C-alpha cells in the first residue's frame, strides 16, 4: 500500500481512538483527507480501482476492527448510484477523479415511530476532484450518491468510523427502511 495511505489510516485510527465525539473526529480528519486527495489516483493500487459494470464498486483499502475506522475506494461508472441510505456512523469523503453527486433526503415528519420513515428531498452537492465532505450521525446523513449517465467515471475515498458493512436502505414510497448488508471487494 502507498505510504501516504498507510500514514493517513494510522493518523485516523489515532484520532478516532481518542474518545472524541463524531463532530470532533470529522473536524480533525477532514484536513488530512483534503491533503491526501491532492495526490490523485496515484495513491491507489490496481486492486483499489476495480470497476463493476453492474454496480458501483467498493474496494476495501483498510478494514479494521468492528468499531475502528475503515477506508474504501469507490469506483463509479456513469449511471451508477447507491440506493437511498444512511451510515450509522461518521464519515469523511474525498474525490480523486470525476464529479461525485450527492442528493440528500430529510425526515418529512420526524421519526417518532421506528417503523415509519417518510423522507423529503433535500439539497444536492457536486464534489469535484479535490473536494472533501463529511457527515455525522444522530440524525444520520441520508442520501443517494452517484454519477449521472452523461458524466465521466468517479473515483472517491470514503473513511468511516466503523466497519462499514451494512446500512439502512430507505424506500420513501413506503415510508420505510430496512438494514441490509453492503458487500465490498477485498484488496490483496
Ligand atoms: Fe453515503
Explain what the structure shows.
It is a single chain. With 188 residues, this protein is of the alpha+beta class. It has a single domain (3-181), classed as Jelly Rolls (Sandwich). 16% of the residues lie in helices and 35% in strands. It contains two helices and ten strands. It has helices spanning 3-16, 22-37; strands at residues 57-63, 70-76, 91-97, 100-107, 119-127, 132-135, 142-146, 154-160, 166-171, 176-181. A five-stranded antiparallel beta sheet has the order 1-2-8-3-6, covered by helices on one side. Strands 5-4-7 form a three-stranded antiparallel beta sheet, with no helix packed on it. A two-stranded antiparallel ribbon has the order 9-10. β9 and β10 (176-181) form a beta hairpin. α1 runs antiparallel to α2. The radius of gyration is 16 Å and the shape is globular. The mean pLDDT is 91. It binds fe (ii) ion (FE2). Residues 85, 87, 143, 145 line the site of fe (ii) ion.
Short description:
The protein is of the alpha+beta class and 188 residues long. 16% of the residues lie in helices and 35% in strands.
Backbone CA Rg: 16 Å
CATH C-level name: Mainly Beta
Quaternary state, please? single chain
Order of helices and strands: HHEEEEEEEEEE
CATH topology: Jelly Rolls
Query: Could you give the distance between the termini?
Result: 10 Å
Instruction: Give the CATH superfamily.
Output: Jelly Rolls
The number of strands is: 10
- The percent range for strand residues is 35-45%
Structural class: alpha+beta
Pick out the low-confidence regions.
none
| Strand order across the largest sheet | 1-2-8-3-6
Instruction: Identify the CATH architecture.
Output: Sandwich
Bound small-molecule species: fe (ii) ion
Main beta sheet, described?
A: 5 strands, antiparallel
**Count of DSSP helices?**
2
Q: Globular, elongated, flat, extended or rod-shaped: what is the shape?
A: globular
Instruction: Give the mean pLDDT.
Output: 91
Compute the number of structural domains.
Answer: 1
- Helical residue percent? 10-25%
Amino acid at each position: 500500500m502507498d505510504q501516504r495511505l498507510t500514514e493517513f489510516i494510522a493518523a485516523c485510527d489515532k484520532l478516532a481512538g481518542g474518545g472524541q465525539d463524531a463532530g470532533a473526529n470529522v473536524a480533525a480528519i477532514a484536513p488530512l483527507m483534503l491533503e491526501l486527495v491532492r495526490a490523485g489516483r496515484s495513491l491507489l493500487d490496481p486492486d483499489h480501482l476495480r470497476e463493476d459494470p453492474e454496480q458501483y464498486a467498493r474496494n476495501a483499502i483498510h478494514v479494521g476492527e468492528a468499531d475502528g475506522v475503515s477506508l474504501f475506494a469507490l469506483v463509479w461508472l456513469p449511471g451508477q448510484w447507491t440506493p437511498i441510505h444512511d451510515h450509522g456512523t461518521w464519515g469523511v469523503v474525498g474525490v480523486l477523479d470525476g464529479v461525485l453527486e450527492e442528493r440528500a433526503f430529510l425526515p418529512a415528519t420526524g421519526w417518532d415511530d421506528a417503523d415509519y420513515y417518510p423522507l423529503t428531498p433535500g439539497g444536492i452537492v457536486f464534489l469535484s476532484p479535490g473536494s472533501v465532505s463529511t457527515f455525522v450521525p444522530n440524525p444520520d446523513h441520508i442520501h443517494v450518491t452517484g454519477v449521472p449517465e452523461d458524466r465521466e467515471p468517479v473515483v472517491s475515498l470514503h473513511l468511516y468510523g466503523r466497519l462499514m458493512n451494512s446500512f439502512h436502505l430507505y424506500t420513501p414510497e413506503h415510508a420505510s427502511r430496512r438494514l441490509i448488508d453492503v458487500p465490498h471487494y477485498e484488496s490483496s
